[in-house]
Amino acid sequence: MTILSNLFGESPFGALEAHGEKVKECLARLPELLKAQADADRAQVESLAQRIFALETEADGIRNHLHELLSSRVLLPLKRDEFFNVLEQQDSIADAAEEIAALFLCRDLRLPDALKEPFNQFVQKVFRNCTLGAGVMSKLDILVESSFSGRDALTVSRLITELSEKEDAMKAEQIQLTRQFLADDTGFAPVDTVLWLQVLRHVASLSSFANRMASGIRLSLKVPSEK
């Protein structure tokens, strides 16, 4: 057996949880990276970016192991394609974090004072949504035990609805922030504008992937009728 097999045994949900922990570690480095970039600490930017790259690679290793683990597995409490969809959406969060880190390595990007607060507020809301998504994933153990049904399923369904509603509100804010980045008075060089818009797109995608990940769990829920 491989080292990963020894760690996770035969439970694909244990591996999925371990993958989620790596993704959370990867995501947790982003606020530090943004601060280092704002502080013009290029050595710290480089160090944090390399750490994000390493964590994303580790997450990929667990994802690949999961694909191997399930290649011969038949019995799961949810459909195999639904399981893989949740895994891939979760993995995409780490991919987006890696893309953001790479962009900050490409060029020393700085925000004008007028954009710092709206950008930081947007980032905070994105991370709030990612935290909600991680909260849904943390309920997997009890969902498996309850066969994705009963009151536990109802509680998780409500969390997913809350995340979906918050994610829906993000698009208008992303559009507004994009307009601010494109305004004539930003002082951005054209290449900076292009790169910042890529950063913004990848930051927004973190929330989108978290929502899709959680919504993938909803497909397997057997929610009782509320009386």
Fraction of residues in helix: over 70%
Order of helices and strands: HHHHHHHH
Query: In the CATH hierarchy, what is the class?
Result: Mainly Alpha
Q: What is the number of helical segments per DSSP (H or I, 4+ residues)? A: 8
Q: Which fold name fills CATH's third level, the topology? A: Methane Monooxygenase Hydroxylase, Chain G, domain 1
Strand fraction equals under 5%
Oligomer: single chain
What is the count of structural domains?
A: 1
Assign an overall shape.
Answer: globular
Count of β-strands? 0
Task: Extract low-pLDDT stretches.
Answer: 1-8
CATH architecture field:
Up-down Bundle
Fourth CATH level, the homologous superfamily: Phosphate transport system protein phou homolog 2, domain 2
Largest sheet: none
Radius of gyration: 19 Å
> What structural class results from the helix and strand content?
mainly alpha
Distance, first to last CA? 49 Å
**Average pLDDT over all residues:** 90
Q: Which descriptors would you attach to this protein?
A:
Methane Monooxygenase Hydroxylase, Chain G, domain 1, 80% helix, 227 residues, mainly alpha
Please give a quick description of this structure.
The chain is mostly helical and 227 residues long. The chain is built from 8 helices and no strands.
Helix and strand topology:
Elements: H1 3-8, H2 12-38, H3 42-69, H4 80-106, H5 113-137, H6 140-145, H7 150-182, H8 190-218
Helix pairs in contact: 2-3, 2-4, 3-4, 4-8, 5-7, 5-8, 7-8
Tell me what the structure shows.
The chain is mainly α. It has one domain: Phosphate transport system protein phou homolog 2, domain 2 (Methane Monooxygenase Hydroxylase, Chain G, domain 1, Up-down Bundle), CATH 1.20.58.220. Helices cover 80% and strands 0% of the residues. The protein has 8 helices and no strands. 33% of the residues are buried. The N terminus is likely disordered.
